[in-house]
């Protein structure tokens, strides 16, 4: 089985490395800088919050699909790991490098980008997958997994084969047949991406502060309200059911830290991918995350004022403006 990771950056390189460790055949379609960094450092180096550390070399690294005729119709499975707003440019290349029986698995956070991609690629089997953990790209070809979790993929014959091969090598992933619920559950957690970027703290330090937890709880509650109204199932991706997550976030510091320890294993330095985007002065995925909550809220007549404020705050940060966090929710930032 020929596998490609299209748009290998933080999550894509980590994913490729896990598949390569399972001795699968994995090529990267990536930028020159990624290829050089991997070659110069003799492989992709992955590590995690538990102290794991491994190195692997991809089968091939392609930086110019148009000038690589040998990969036309070559890949049986392609994991697409570009950002949501980078997908539109990828459709022609995804079509070129796959064949009629290929599976294309889109690994973007949030809502909206997958539906568009599937509409543009009616000739291919398109699926949605998720990366439930954080990956930070460090220097020297190193990629660090900062939070717990395993890749979640839709159940199909390709992913079953991958899952089986991974398990033979002591690695694991999760396969689901209801990815829609998983995506909704992941969005619940991703509502922290923007707040984490706004407060400019590691996730662990951010969650120690009750005002930030309360904001997050409100943003999450709005999404749960939208899901209820829209009849969208929300899968449980944490140790407690989705409806309990905002309740726990609202608890006073002492009680919260007791419960949080057992809820999520997290590296003290982990931050959200949106924090990385803001730091790197890149466009963020806000429209697909909190923005998607606002859009669906409007469609189903559910109020989403906190998510609206969060979107506005991120748009200002994208413009390079500074923020006064208390403007987000002045009434609740006092304790
Ligand atoms: N980082 C994380 O911890 C997590 C991220 N996610 C989600 O996963 C998705 C991917 O995120 P992430 O891995 O962080 O993104 P990255 O920006 O790290 O990786 C995407 C890579 O694809 C490159 N790229 C874009 N277009 C092309 C193209 N046409 N051909 C080749 N390379 C291309 C980008 O280069 P360039 O920058 O030059 O455009 C970049 O190197 C997002 O939707 C994100 O929300 C989910 C969970 C965790
Ligand atoms: C895993 C998580 C939620 C970490 O914030 C993430 O998806 C991201 O950073 O984009």
From TrEMBL:
Top EC category: oxidoreductase
GO cellular component: cytoplasm
Pfam families: ApbA, ApbA_C
EC number(s) per entry: 1.1.1.169
Residues of the Ketopantoate reductase C-terminal domain: 184-318
Pathway it works in: Cofactor biosynthesis; (R)-pantothenate biosynthesis; (R)-pantoate from 3-methyl-2-oxobutanoate: step 2/2
Keywords: NADP, Oxidoreductase, Pantothenate biosynthesis
Catalytic activity: (R)-pantoate + NADP(+) = 2-dehydropantoate + NADPH + H(+)
Domain Ketopantoate reductase N-terminal stretches: 3-151
Record SUPFAM superfamilies: 6-phosphogluconate dehydrogenase C-terminal domain-like, NAD(P)-binding Rossmann-fold domains
Biological processes per GO annotation: pantothenate biosynthetic process
GO function terms (MF aspect): 2-dehydropantoate 2-reductase activity; NADP binding
Family: Belongs to the ketopantoate reductase family.
Purpose of the protein: Catalyzes the NADPH-dependent reduction of ketopantoate into pantoic acid.
Protein name, as recorded: 2-dehydropantoate 2-reductase
Naturally occurring in which organism (per UniProt): Shewanella holmiensis
């Amino acid at each position: 089985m020929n596998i490609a990771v299209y748009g290998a950056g933080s999550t894509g390189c980590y994913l490729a490395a896990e598949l390569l460790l399972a001795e699968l055949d994995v090529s990267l379609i990536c930028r020159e800088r990624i290829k050089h960094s991997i070659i110069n450092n003799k492989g992709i180096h992955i590590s995690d919050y538990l102290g794991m550390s491994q190195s692997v070399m991809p089968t091939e690294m392609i930086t110019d699909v148009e000038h690589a005729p040998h990969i036309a119709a070559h890949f049986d499975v392609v994991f697409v790991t570009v950002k949501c707003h980078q997908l539109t440019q990828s459709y022609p290349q995804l079509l070129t490098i796959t064949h009629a029986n290929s599976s294309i698995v889109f690994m973007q956070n949030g809502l909206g980008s997958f539906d568009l991609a599937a509409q543009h690629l009616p000739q291919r089997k398109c699926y949605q997958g998720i990366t439930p953990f954080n990956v930070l790209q460090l220097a020297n070809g190193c990629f660090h997994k900062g939070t717990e979790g395993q890749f979640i993929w839709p159940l199909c014959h390709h992913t079953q084969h991958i899952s089986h091969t991974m398990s033979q090598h002591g690695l694991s992933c999760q396969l689901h047949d209801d990815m829609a619920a998983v995506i909704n559950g992941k969005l619940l957690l991703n509502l922290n991406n923007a707040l984490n970027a706004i407060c400019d703290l590691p996730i662990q330090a951010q969650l120690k502060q009750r005002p930030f937890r309360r904001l997050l709880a409100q943003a999450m509650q709005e999404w749960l309200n939208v899901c209820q109204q829209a009849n969208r199932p929300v899968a449980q991706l944490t140790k407690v059911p989705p409806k309990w997550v905002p309740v726990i976030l609202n608890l006073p510091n002492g009680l919260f830290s007791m419960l949080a320890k057992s809820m999520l294993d997290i590296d003290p330095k982990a931050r959200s991918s949106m924090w990385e985007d803001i730091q790197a002065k890149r466009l963020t995925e806000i429209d697909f995350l909190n923005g998607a909550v606002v859009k669906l809220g409007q469609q189903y007549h559910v109020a989403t004022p906190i998510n609206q404020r969060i979107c506005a705050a991120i748009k200002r940060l994208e413009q390079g403006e500074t923020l006064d966090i208390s403007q987000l929710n002045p009434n609740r930032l006092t304790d």
